[in-house]
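**Backbone geometry record:**
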Amino acid sequence: MAAAAAVGGQPSPQSEPSQPELGRDKAATAAHLKAALSRPDNRAGAEELQALLERVLSAERPLARAEGGGEEAAAAGGGGGGGSGGGPGAAEEEALEWCKCLLAGGGGYEEFCAAVRAYDPAALCGLVWTANFVAYRCRTCGISPCMSLCAECFHQGDHTGHDFNMFRSQAGGACDCGDSNVMRESGFCKRHQIKSSSNIPCVPKDLLMMSEFVLPRFIFCLIQYLREGYNEPAVDVPSEKDLHKVLQLLGPQISFLEDLTKMGGAMRSVLTQVLTNQQNYKDLSSGLGENACAKKSHEKYLIALKGSGLAFPEDKFTCGMQDQAAGTSSQAVPGFAGATGTSGQVDSSDEEDQDGSQGVGKRKRVKLSSSVKDQSIMDVLKHKSFLEELLFWTIKYEFPQKMVTFLLNMLPDQDYKIAFTKTFVQHYAFIMKTLKKSHESDTMSNRIVHISVQLFSNEELARQVTEECQLLDIMVTVLLYMMESCLIKSELQDEENSLHVVVNCGEALLKNNTYWPLVSDFINILSHQSVAKKFLEDHGLLVTWMNFVSFFQGMNLNKRELNEHVEFESQTYYAAFAAELEACAQPMWGLLSHCKIRETQEYTRNVVRYCLEALQDWFDAINFVDEPAPNQVTFHLPLHRYYAMFLSKAVKCQELDLDSILPDQEMLMKLMIHPLQIQASLSEIHSNMWVRNGLQIKGQAMTYVQSHFCNSMIDPDIYLLQVCASRLDPDYFISSVFERFKVVDLLTMASQHQNTILDSEHERSMLEGALTFLVILLSLRLHLGMTDDEILRAEMVAQLCMNDRTHSSLLDLIPENPNPKSGIIPGSYSFESVLSAVADFKAPVFEPGGSMQQGMYTPKAEVWDREFDPVMVILRTVYRRDVQSAMDRYTAFLKQSGKFPGNPWPPYKKRTPLHPSYKGLMRLLHCKTLHIVLFTLLYKILMDHQNLSEHVLCMVLYLIELGLENSPEEEPDEEEPVGGQERCHDSWFPGSNLVSNMRHFINYVRVRVPETAPEVKREPPASTSSDSFASTQNSGTAQVFSLVAERRKKFQEIINRNSGEANQVVRPKTSSKWSAPGSTPQLTTAILEIKESILSLLIKLHHKLSGKQNSYYPPWLDDLEILIQPEIPKYCHGDGMTAVERILLKAALQSRLNKRIIEEICRKVTPPVPPKKTSSAEKKTLDKEERRQKARERQQKLLAEFASRQKSFMETAMDVDSPETDIAMEIVTPEQQISEAVYDCVICGQSGPSSEERPTGLVVLLQASSVLGQCRNSTEPKKLPTTEEEQIYPWDTCAAVHDVRLSLLQRFFKDSSCLQAVSIGWEGGVYVQTCGHTLHIDCHKSYMESLRNDQVLQGFSVEKGEFTCPLCRQFANSVLPCYPGNNVENSLWQCQSNRSMQELIKEVEELQEQLGIFPVSISSETNLSKEMESVMKDIKSTTQKKYTDYSKTPGSPDNDFLFMYSVARTNLELELIHRGGNLCSGGASTAGKRSCLNQLFHVLAMHMRLYSIDSAYNPWKKLTQLMQDMNSQLCNEEQPEVPVLYRDVSSLLLIQILTMPQPLHKEHFTCIVKVLFTLLYTQALAALSVKCSEEDRLAWKDLGSLKKNTCNAEKSWEVLLSLVISELSKGKLYFEGETEELGMVNPIAWSPDNIERYLQQFCLPFLRITSLLQHHLFGGDLPSCQEEEEFIVLASCLGLLPSFSQTAQPFTSASCLDWPVPAFDIIPQWCFEVTSFSERHAEQVKVLLIQESKWDLPHLLQLPENYNTIFQYYHRKTCSVCTKVPKDPAVCLVCGTFVCLKGLCCKQQSYCECVLHSQNCGAGTGIFLLINASVIIIIRGHRFCLWGSVYLDAHGEEDRDLRRGKPLYICKERYKVLEQQWVSHTFDHINKRWGPHYNGL
């Protein structure tokens, strides 16, 4: 053989010998080659194979052809020997076939696959899935939080009792079963538990030999395709279409590779070998051969590299990344920045483009000139293997799903995993660049994370890559570069000269969260301890990271709008919060989780050190001196928060000395400024000072405290302020607070003041804000000494006090892990145990007609009693109303438990002890500045100055009490002011201890007031001596006290102390905005006489609060015990007075002097409290309050009056107890007989009778219903199918049985007669219900008109006649006219007439004869008759045509006739079902109040009497007269009438009643019933006779004939039975099939008792319907009874039982018979019809006999206990119509049909499948369970609503859309409610949120 070259070389394109081989059979060729290669010297074979592959795989490049590129096609064509010439895909097909053949080495490909699978050693599952796949996560088994399992592995493993949930994958993932790095082995499934590698034999060498030769070529071919298909576009974005086209063409190849990976471990290791072999890659792809095609391809590859801003290392310099990895990681290569020209300008072309496209003028993007990091990370890539280049193209093509899946499918191979991870890291920077440019960044992000989460979750792997490939350097650098592309100049503080740069939140990068894949990888690797330690040890990395964090410091700056409302509200704030949380806070929590023990102190020191450096740089960059710029706030201070959290950790866990890591005082002063600014701004925002900035600023204030953010935002801020407060001068700190909150000017003794920076309407809320902030600052212990469990408990109590919560919302609201506070994973043991300790579970309840409740947790009584903490509640509320809600609930608890009757104040709660490091915090309570503020405020409150509130007083007292609780140990001697320099506040109080300052009397105060103030007029009093028992030094006049000046002095001192004299910075003394003496009116100084101390003010306040003089009496005077053993509870309820008493007691306890002074103050009889001089502002608010109170009372009164009126109206309107009423709305009193029914119109309010001209109508809702049709014959409940075996067959439903019967009758009998022998409406029958309110029909028309013009419609369509009842708002769609008539006959009908049965029968017949004769009034067109016609039209159009047309001749009048009496039947049957299927309960029907049957009968009767029944065929004649000549009548018609015995008696009853003239007389009604009962009884006997066996029949026949001649023969069933048997045996009824009959009917002994019971059961349905009918037509209650007696009671009620109970004999049903014609004459006549029919159709005779009806009540399908059963079966199930797996599968709960919700696939004539099904199955009502959401949806006609879920989790909660994925269990009560609403047709009334579905469901 002519060998052209060695294996690596390229054989000449047309080498001869391989030419014929292509023609030879592929399998043979493959076998031949395999044999050649198996020889020891296989060079020849190898060359031959190479030649073949070269030819096959480069058969004319299809891509070139597809794109029609001329020269490319020519170049490619050079290789084209034997490519098949089909379409573009044909060559690939051919190539793939070849590959398969060659791999199998001549054998079958399938067998080859099976053979390889046998050697699969993999103990891992590794199943890869894409987005939307349903997977599981078990926290109990997972080691990594990202662990996930496929459904199969999950169900195969044992996870009972574990904390797991099901989830829909967002980005895709892979199954971790079998991987002990990620999960505990106990959780492995059965398949992956066995470590199977040991017993799997070695792979035979020759099995995979061909693969090793073929695959390199195949993969190279794929790479060439990729190179060629990629055209570096002129713009920076490849047109997606081109890429897509290439990928589609490559689909089969990639799928082929994917299939190979699924063959198991053996094949994977071959692939790994191929993909990572550097030699192969070099030989094939270097482009050095003489093959033009390969050269071209290599050039394209280089162009692509360049276009990506990457250099091929040779072009630059040889220090590639791999080689450099040996150097130290963080030092940059010396001289590197100089060596490469591009290093400063990263990616420059791309940046400029982006900048231009943004087109924002003002914002200059900032570039960082050169990075500390080494440039090669960013733009050098060198590919050394197929795997590396494959990944490069995967990225270039933006991660096509198939490629990703292939790359991930290989992961179970360990060698591959390592190689791939390194490759991925090497391409990391390139991934970032591609991601930034991508248009589909969302999809791409998901795919990136899909890969990276598999690589970085594994600690071992992450550590290895960190060590070998500088993973951390790469990640941090890449993140830094990514953010650098969107920096802008910061405008915080000093807009002109600021050097600080921040990210611009408006950029797509932040707005679309494009950065999250990279950040999430970073967080993922920091969760591994070994990696995090490397990070924390590496100073260079920490510096870079702090640099990165500082990009977010001060972003999204808000400037307060003072004039105009901002025109454009930017919504960028959410991007800013998300960025800080994800990019800064989460990595911080990750790092903190590794700093838990003493040994890690060093790490904390490192972080704190670089954090402080970064902060110092930041302060310098923004030119910060000492005053924050006014009217600016940023919520983003990640550097402060890093610093705070590491401090907290250091003290809490690492036992570090706090002072050793704190900076100097000057830095602390700077540090506190911005967090304090945020607290003040929060208060401003809530005071509506930022309204002009729009809603978004409120959004920021809420997000800042919201549960997902608070522990990364507000908590660290407050902690940092606490640290600063504990270390700074307290006077300085307190004055800073009041200054920041802008309330300094308010803190004056004068009654008027000037506030230069606050409008007076904001003063009050800002003062409240400042005091509340101080209370929080001093009481909060989250980071100051609480343990994790205490924190969790406090958080939980706070949330539960605001509102009862569901379990899931609690999990959501409690700041989650990762969390300083805990190793508490929500849902973990400690969460559950704390929850059960503080809360009670309220099971879900159902208010009928109300919304369905979820299971809720509510605080236990002792929590309210001892743990309710308003401070925590205030800190955690997002909405201010929640604080109020908590207080209301607290008040309610105190009232209910009798602990406190009045309006309590927020309770005072003792705090957890402080950690010693923070003891300094309490100095705030003992500083003169605070005491002066408290004194001033108490005084102002006592004097009723304006803008003070109870809240202010509450906080003041709270602070005093805190001070007393935390007083320094011993009362110090009054210390001399240090430094000798007299400060102005020293003239107020002598010392700084609150206990002693409380008793210090202040006599005079000098104040600055406006000249207009009342104080100015007064002369200062002569004597300035203090009272006799004032404290030791006689204070003169206290100075004017200026907080601001104080603060400046302090600040100056501290600065001087810190920075020795040498380098002292000259700082401005005051900023201009404080010097406001120029403001008018001029301020002047006045001296006020005060003569009070804090104690005396408190006592006076007590008097003021109680409204009595001398109300305070020191308790210890009566009981000295109080002082010796003070029982001050830890927790106190009560109002302001209680608080004052508590404080005075504590003050007395702490010092004897205080005790003495309190007693003295009380002894001096307090002067009478001056009548309150309320200032005008207060007057206003008081008036407002009073007015409101009065208005409220008025409203209550009105409402009460209205309610009582309504109640009396309801009572009269719906009176059912008086026997006279028969119509719902009549008001009838027994004494005076009102001749006509009177109706109230709910629109015009007039009352009156209904008349022909102005008829009144009932508001009704007509709806088609198939509920009756769903009754089944068995009591066995139908289950929802959850396996393939279970199926539901609909032919045992009531509807199906009736349908079959009707069509059978129509086969053999005359059509018109058939249509009177049955009822329809079992499916699609019209049900009529009313709310009981009436209105004039003309009023209704104008009401509808107004609705039509009203645009705001709630979910109903006026065009279709829908409206809501004007009074009760119940849904309705028609008005049923009330028949004008009087009520008097009622009583006449009751009287017994003595006419005989025969006379009555005659009368009935005559009345029916007058069919067509109408009362004059109706025949002439009156309003009433028009209305009746229109309502009849409505009734007809309510249901679909198919449910009304049963006649063979369409449009025949028989149809209408049948339809009308069936409507009556449907309504009676449904009422029966609502009563539970029988009438045992008696009484008026539950629907009785609201029944409209009477009116309905009138309307139906009026229409029925338009149709005459030809007298010859009138069934009445057949029932009451003997026919003369029966034979002739039967023979002369081709289709006979339906035999009487085959007719449905209830239908006959309705036909008879409705064709009589109305109103009907009671005696006629009874007569009709008696006659029909005889027929029914005969039918019963016939049915019974068929059921007996032959012997039984003979026995009964004989027995009966013996008794025939006894006196009461006609009333004995034995006689009648024998008669029926003998008559029927004349035909062929009993003959055929005797033997099988016996087999079927179980041989019950038909004892007389059994027979009697059978006959009664047979007749009962008819008796029930008749009794209901009688009740509605003639009034009168239904008697109640036991089930056994039901027959007797109903029979006597209907007048069938003459006078029962004298006889001692047992009751028999036959005694009710009253034969109109002797039974021995009429029964043979009826039987004859049947026997003559049997001559012709013997097989149908029995089937058509009326059978006993045993319908069970209608039920929905029974559902399984566990929702998972349903979910697993249905969510992957294919739809039987379109054979796809539906996106939104649903299942009908009535019949179990599986449908596609909203699926366009199953749409028919613009109706989607659910809507269509609701019409077919429920005549317009559908109940569907949405499989993927666990929610039930109701379709009613053209509207739909979400009903809720009947599956709840263990905590009684729904899980809509299965978001939480917890196991769900059926809630039987809810399902009952659903079924109840379905059966009672009340969906429309009970469910409120309806919307139109436009047939799209």
Summary: The chain is about 50% helix and 5% strand.
